[in-house]
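A note on notation is needed here, since sequence and fold are reported together in a single record. The reader may check this reading against the record printed directly beneath this paragraph.
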Amino acid sequence: MDGGDDGDEDDGDSSGDNADDEDENEEDEEEEKHLAPIDSAVVIPIDELVSPPKRTEPVIPPPSTDTATTR
């Protein structure tokens, strides 16, 4: 062989591979920006934890009060 390019991509030149790796690293860094820090806390407003007022009727009655199957 004369040492010229034989057409296959395995010629020991990894400069193209490094460019791909750099793109992947940039994508990873962008994804990390959207993640919350480990020591952050999730705050749930108290009004979402309160049960409904006692005067309201349940939207779906419990199965034991199903009148369609009772004779």
